[in-house]
Amino acid sequence: MKKILSLLMALTILLACFGMSAEVPVVTVNSWSWVDSGWADCLNAVFGNFAETHQDVVIDLDTYSCAYADVMNNLLVQAPTQTTPDIAMVKAAWVPQLLDLGVLADISTAMPAEALADYTEAALGAYRVDGKIVAVPYFGQGYAMFYNKDLFEEAGITELPKTFDEVLECARKISALGQDDKGNTIYGLGLVNSETELAEGYNVFPWLWARGGDFEKDGSIVLDSEANLQAYTEIAALYADGTSPKGLSFKEMRNLFATGCLGMFWDLQSQTASFKAGSELGDAFIEHIGAFPIPGATKGTGVGYNDDVVLVMFNTCKNLEAAGVVLDYMTGATTIGYMKEYGKGKMSSRMSVMAQVYSDVSDPIAAAFVDANSTNHALPCMNLHFSEADEAITRSVTRLAQGEDPATVLKDVSEEITELYAE
Amino acid sequence: MRRQAAAAVLRTRGRFRLTDRWFGTFLVAPAIIVFLVVIAYPIIRGIWVSFCANKLKNINNPIWNDFKNYQVIFKKGAFWNYFGNTLSFCFFTVGSQLVLGMLLALLLNSGIKGRKFFRGLFIIPWTIPSVVVAILWRWLIQQQYGVLNYILMRLRVISGMNLNWTNDPHMAMLAIIIACVWKQLPYMMVMLLAGLQSVDRGLQEAALIDGANQAQSFWHITIPAIRPVLVTCVWLSITQNFQQFTIINNMTGGGPNYATQTLSVAAYKEAFTSYNFGTSAAIGVLWMVFLFVLTMLSNHFSDRFGRDIV
Q: Is residue A13 a part of any domain in this protein?
C-alpha cells in the first residue's frame, strides 16, 4: 500500500512538472522604440503593467537595437523565412510592402469585436483590404506648429496666426529681425530638406493642403495642379529670401529651434524632449515655446497630418486569443495613458481611449496637439511606392531650394511619381 | 631482393606523396570553403540575380529576365550620373590623399622633433569608425552652427554663417571628399612613410653630390624608388573609394538631388528603398566589372614597375 501511494505521489509530481499545469500562451511583440532612449521608461512601464495585470498571457518583447529606419528591412528579411513575430509595431507607410508579401493576418480574427468597434470607420477603413483588417492604429503621431514666444514678441506678433497666409506673414516678420545678439541668423519658418532622413517629402503636404492642393485623389497622383504650384512657388520664395534655412534635417531643425533662432516649424509633440536637450536653457526652454494646429487657408481649418504607427499581426501567429488581448491592451487607455504621462504626445484613434485619457489636458502644448488631432489629415501612404514618392518629393524641394523654376520642378516630380505608381 | 626492396620503397614513397597531398588539401579546405561560401557564392548569385526580376514578392524566387535590368539602368540615364559622380569623387579623394599623404610622409621622414608624437596624432582619424566620421563632419559643416563656417567667417573667407555645404551640389561633393580624405589620409601617410624609409640614402646623397637639388632628387631618385608602394597605395585607395558608402550616405544621402549619388549609394537605394534587388545587383555587376578591369591594369603596371626596378 505504501509503495502504491509513493508511486502515485511521484507520478503526480512528475506530471505537475511536465504538463499538468496549463501552458501560458506567449505572444512575441516587436517594438523599435527602445532605440530612442527617451522611450525606454515609458515602454518599460507599459509592458511592466501588462505583466502585472495579465497573468494569463505573456509578452515576449523583442526590441530592435538598430535604427528605426532598419526595422522594416529586418521584417522584410524575416517575412520570407517565416520568422516574423506575432505582432509588430510598424509605420503605416510600411504596411503595403508587408501586404504585398502576403504575411499579414486578419486582425479581426484576434482582436475583440468591441475594441475594433471603438475605432471610427475613417481610422480603420484605410487598413481594410479585401474585407480583412490588416493593421490597427496603435497611436497617431500628429504634427502641429511649434513657435518661439520670444521671437514672436520681438517681431511684434501679438496673436497666433489663424490662417496659412498669416503664418507666412509672421514668418517674414520674424526673419526680418535679422540676427540675434550673438550674430546668429534668425529664420521665420523651417522646412526640412536634407535628403538624409525619411519623411522629409510628405512633410510639405500641409503646405499643399493649405493651398487647396493634394498629392493623391482616388488613386491618381494630382501633384501637377495650380494649387500645388502656388505652394511650390511660395516654398521656393521662402528659401530664396532666407526665411527658411536650406538643407536641414529634422534633427538639425530641432537643434536650430532649440538655439532660439527659428520662429516656427511643424513637428511631433514628443520632440519637446529634443528641444530641452538642445537648448542652453535646458528644461526651462519649454516656457519659451508654444504650439498651435497648422492652420489652413481659412480660419478654423487645419492642415497638419498624422503619421500613424500601427500594429500588424503576422500569419505565423498561433495564439490568436492571446494576441487579441495584447492588441487590445496596446491600443487601449492604459498604454496611451502612459504615453501621455511620459510626455510622448501620442493620440489614439479609439474614441473611448481619447475621451478617457485626454478629457482634461492642462499642458498648453499637449492641448494644442489634441486640437490638431481633430483636424489633422491622414497620410495617403497605403501604396507600395509611397516611400519612393516621399524621396522624390524631398528631391523636388531641394531643387526649389537651389532656385529652380517651381513649375518645372512640380511637373517633373509629378511625372516621376505617376510613373512609379503605375509600376 | 634489391629490386623487391626498391619497389617497396617506391610503393612507400608513392603512399607517402599521396598522404601529403591529401593532408595539404585538408589544411587548405576550410579556407576554400569560407572563400566559396562568403565570397564566390554571393558574387555568382549576385551576377545571376542581376539578370532576374527580383523584388519583394519573389525575393526567394528570382525570375530570369535576360538583360532587362541593364536596359532599365541605362534607359533611365541616371547610371552615367552615378558613374560620373563616383569617378570624380575617386579622382579628387585619391589625388588629395596622395599629395597630402606624401607631404606628411616627407615631413615625418625629415627627422623633425616630436616625430613619433605627430605620427601617433595623425593616425587617429583612421581609427574612428566611418559612420562617426560622417556624423562628425555633418555637424562640422552645418551652416548655422558648424565650426567650419565659424572659422571661415572669422578668417573673413565668408561674410557670415551663410555657406551652405549640403544644399549646393559642388559644395556637397567637396564636403564628402574632405571627410573621406580626413579619414583615409593616415593610411596613405603610413604606407608612403614606410616606402620613404626604405629608400637608399646613398643614392640620394650621390645625387646631391652630383649637383641635383632637393626637387630633382625627390623626383628622379625617391619617386622611382618608392614606385611599387605608390602604385599599390593608389590602386588600393581607388578601389576603396569606389566602394565608399558609409560616409556619403550618412553625410548627404546622395543629395542634393543626386549630386553626390555614387554607384554604391545608388545600389543601396535601389535595393532597400525601391526593393528592386535585380536592378541593384545589375548596378553592382557593372561596378564590379569596372573594378575588375582596373585591378587587371593595376597588376599589369605593378608587374611592369617591378621589372623596371629589377
A: no
Question: Residue B57 is nearest to which of A101, A256, A398, comparing CB atoms?
Answer: A101
Contacts 24+ apart (CB under 8 A), B289-298: B290/B242, B291/B239, B291/B242, B294/B235, B294/B238, B294/B239, B294/B242, B295/B235, B295/B239, B298/B231, B298/B235
Q: What does the pLDDT look like over B221-265, one tens digit per residue?
A: 899 889 889 988 998 999 899 999 999 999 999 989 999 999 999
A291 and A213 assigned to the same domain: yes
Say whether both A326 and A202 belong to one domain: no
Give a yes or no: residue A11 inside a domain.
no
Q: Are A139 and A90 in contact (CB under 8 A)?
A: no
Same domain, A101 and A74: yes
CB B209 within 8 A of CB B251: no
* This prediction's pTM: 0.83
Q: Is B164's Cβ below 8 Å from some Cβ in A?
A: yes
Residue with cell 601529403: B20
ipTM over 0.95: no
Taking the C-alpha atoms of residue B121 and residue A371, their distance in angstroms, rounded to an integer, is 56
Decide if A100 and B167 are in contact by the 8 Å CB cutoff: no
Residue of B nearest to A409 (CA): B257
**Domain limits at A295?**
142-305+381-422
Q: Are residues A282 and A418 in the same domain?
A: yes
**For residue B217, is pLDDT > 80?**
yes
Identity of the amino acid at A257? F
